[in-house]
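fold-stage: in
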Amino acid sequence: MQVIYEDNHIIVAYKESGEIVQGDKTGDKPLSDYVKDYIKEKYAKPGQVFLGVVHRLDRPVSGLVVFARTSKALARLNEMFRKGDVHKTYWAICERKKDAADSMTTSADFTQIESWLVRNEKQNKSYSYNREVPNAKKAVLKYRCLKKGDNFDLLEVQLLTGRHHQIRCQLASIGATIKGDLKYGAKRSNPDGSISLLARHIEFIHPVSKTLISLDSPLPGTFQKFV
C-alpha cells in the first residue's frame, strides 16, 4: 500500500490492480483496511480508526483513491463528488481495431462520447445504447489519443458522469477495448489479471483547507513504455 498524500483530513493511496477498495462478499482484505492499519501504526492511535470511503475503482483497475480521515471531510467530499467538483483523469491502453479506434491520431483536442448505459447486475456488466432505453442512464466522457503504439493506443479519458464500468463500456463501444478487459471484448487477458486502465490524475479543492490538491498516480509497468 502506497500513500501518495496525507494530512489531518484526507489521505490518498495508490490502489494496485486486483485490490478492492472496500470490503465485499469475497472476504478479501480491502485497501481501506490497509490504510486504517497504516494510520493506526504511524500515529499510534488507540481503538478504531475512522476512515471514510468516498469513491471506488473496479478491482482490475489501478490508480488513485481518496479517503476521508474525518467526518467533516467525508461529508464535504461526498458532496464534491456528487456535484462533479472532483476532477479525475484516466489513462487507458486500448486495442486498435479496424474501425473508429484504428483512425485515431494524437491530438490536443478531446472527442466526446454520449450514450445510454444499462447495467446487468447478474453479469456485472454494462451495455451501451445510442438512444434512451428502459433502465438506462446517460453517460458522457471525453477522450483523446496521447500516443500510438504498434498494436495499442494510449488514451486520456475524462469522466463527465460516473456510471458502472463507464470507461470500459463506452470505449469498447467505439472499438477501443481496453487491453486485458475480456469482459468487454479484449482479445486476451493481461498476465497479472489486470486491465490497462489507470486512475492517473485527481484534482480538487481541499474540503477543509481550501487549497488545491493535484496528484498523479505512479505508472504500472504496462504504462511506462508509453511515456
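fold-stage: in (second)
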Amino acid sequence: MSVIPEHYKAIRTYRDQKIKNLPSDSSILNEWHDDIMTRSVKQSIELHVSSHGPPPSPFCFFVMGSAGRKEQGVWSDQDHGIIYEQNTEEAKRYFVFLGKEISNGLAITGYPLCSGLVMASNPFWCRSREEWRKQADEWTSDASWESIRYLLTFLDGRCLFGEETYISDLKRTAYRFIHEKQLINRILENTMHIKKAVNMLGHFLVETHGAYTGLLNIKDTGLFPYINAGRLLAISENLMATSTHMRLQELPPSILNEENKEKFSRQFLTLQKYRLQYGDHTDYESGHYLFINRLSKAEKKELKELIKDGQHLNEYVRRYTERKGHHGNE
C-alpha cells in the first residue's frame, strides 16, 4: 500500500516493524495481532465519534475466525461483528457506519477485507442484542448447511472491545438452542470432513497445480481436524473458550482424560509452530501452505504423526457425538 492515511499510519508502521521479528510462538504472534487490531479499532472509534457523536448505546465489537480463536498466522483477513444494546434504526445506522470505519481502518493497518463480507460493515453482522438472539434462533431452526456455517463462525467469536457480556450471553443462548433442537449431529455432518494429507505409501499429498504446487495445505489437512473437534466438544459442554488449545484443556475428564487433553492441545500448538516456521507468508492465502521440502526427515515424520492424531481425535469426537445423540443427552 503506497499511501497510508495519516490516522492509521503509525499503527501500520508499528505492525510492519513487529512482523519483521516474526516469532515461532503462535501465542506471542496472536498477542501482537490483538494489540494491533485493538489500536486500529480504537482509532476508528475515535474518528467516528469525532464525526457522528458518541455511540447511542453500549456495544461489543467482536472478532471471529482465526482471530476469534487466537490462531492467526502472519497474515489474516477480517472476520468481525458488532452487538449493540439499543434496538432502534438510529442505532443501526450509527453502528453500521462505525463498522465501515473499522473495516476500512483494519484494511489499512494490514488486515484485508473479508471476501465473504463477514464484517461489522455488513448489517448482517451488525445487530442489536435482541436481533442477534432472533438470528441465533433462526440459524438453529433452519439448520441448513449455510446456517450451521454462520452459527459456527459466530461461536468462535470473542469480544475485542466493549461489553464482553453481550457476546457471552448470546453464545449461551445459542448453546441452549442447539441442545434444545438436538443439532449436535447436524453440526458433526457439516464439519468433520477431513482432507487427506498422506497417501497409502506414506507420502505427503501436496498441491499438484496452481500457485502452491509442491506445498502442503496445512490449514485443511492439519489444523482443521483439531479446530473442528475442539469446537464441537466445546458446544457439547457449553464451554466459553474460543481457542482450540483452551477448548481442549477445559474439557471435563469424563470427555477427555488429562493425558489426552495435554497430548492433543500440545500437538495443535506444535502444528501452528510448523506453520510459522515453514509456511509461505507472502500473503493471507499463502499462509495456509507449508514448504514440505524444507523439513528434515525427523520433522516430516513428526508432522505426519501430528496430522494422523488429529484424524484420531476427529474419529473419537464422531463416536462420542453419535453415542451422546443416540442416548438423548443433548
